[in-house]
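Deliverable D4.2, example record:
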Amino acid sequence: MENFTEIGKTNNSFLKESAAGQKVLVIVPHEDDEINLAGSMIYTYVQKGAEVYCAFTTNGDYSFAASTRLYEAEQSLQKLGVTKIFFLGYGDTANHYPGGHLFYHENEIVISPAGHQETYGSLHSPDFSFQIRKSHSHYCRAAMRHDLESLILFLKADIIFCIDLDVHADHRAASIIFEEAMGNILTRGGNTYQPTVFKGFAYCTSFGAPKDFYTRNIYSVPLPQKADDSIIGLSLYDWKSRVRFPVLPKCRGHFLHDNILYQALFKHASQSAALHAVRIVNGDTVFWKRRTDNLIYQANVTASSGNPYDLKEFKILDLKNIDESNVSIIDHSWCPSIDDSKKEIYISWPNKQNISLVKIAGSIKSDGCIKRIIISFDNGSIYELGALPMHGRIISIKLPEIQQVSNACVRLEDAEGSRYGLSFIGFFAHEYEMSVINPYIKLLINDDFAYDYLIPNTVNACQLSVYQYNTKEKIHIYSLDDMDGWVDSDYVAHFTSNADRLCIRAEIEGNPDCYDEICIHRLNWRALQKLRLCQCIENRLLTFYLKKHRKYTHIRHKYLKKL
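Output generated by the structure prediction step:
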């Protein structure tokens, strides 16, 4: 098996560059979701030298004791190199909990399925509220929002990875309440804290993804199948707009036994999480970026009719019911009244702002369609936009030149149907968010992130493409050894007749510090069959062992209660 691990030299500027001095915060509901959502990112940023924190909104006490779940989380994160953990200590629930989820109770105290009504942790890991204020928080929506807001401001992390609207009620509650807390921070007068925020899923792109680990070349996260609980395709959740991060060697490879994510998942014995490693381990990690530098957060927003307040919120998608698997999005939009002849939004700032990019989206749920929009600034500049896409998909308009303005007006010039409006308006000083994450690139083969890529030795050419994050510059791709082959202008890699591997480098022209290196290996039929056989053996042995371990764990829990 060792012949197929680390068999080539692969480097990437994102994975290699230091993150020393940076803070990274991961926010998830349950103990094991940290791996499902961002396991490879946690490990990557630890290796890059960042301070990595993980926060759990619940204490996982629905089926198992909180002390068990908290201990497992500490052991799992320790495998990844994380020791700074926060437990908010709210109750773990299931969908359709008869007692009512705290999400539905702004200030009214609810009792969790485990019988608690205030946050708690363990003797050596008290809940966050008790750590900070020496008192516990009641189980209600306002308290969780306040705790999340306090945590975010307490750490002021440079990068935040947070759960999104998965089908589980606790996931949805954590996602929406986080966005409310983040919105409170961003709209606070004089706020200057603007972290880089990524939202992602623990289910459809991870825990519920296909069992596709045991392949010749590791797959990237596939497009989830269309389901009632999916929000992909709505608003900013266009699949092509996803942010894809490369992963370190310890998070990929051909075998699980020495994979750091598998080892971390194994520590969550109560959840039998390691059984899902074949779904969770992929060649990339997928998120959707939520920009916090939208100038509208610090603006005064009014309208010719209707309430435009929602346009200032960080929250774009909202749910009234977090229990039903079928996603029913609340129409979280500004809609002008029928008799409004102007149909205008007015945005003003106390000081002049530099604007180079505008983002805008129509209503997510609407029977109408906006056909034409006029955006005007107080310096006399006017821009006309055509029809907005359906389902609230966001479009971006790069302005020909930077506009220095104090006022802007967005007018719905032409529309048809009913209940049309805007779900998002963004004004930005920069095309790309100013962030501690530098632009990076990654070579792809068949739209999968390529590292050490194996092909039969009968193949003489391989088509490449490039993924680019926060850059549109021209990419130069070439072979690191002309004796083995070359890459033509169409990004096709060609092998010389006797070459058994070809090392390839891609870099931004004029910026060689932004690069990616991969190695394509040509192996004979015997070597490829050996790999397949070894993977099959490991898969069967690990599955057998993990199922027995799951049975053993649950027997212990049944009779001993605590693990």
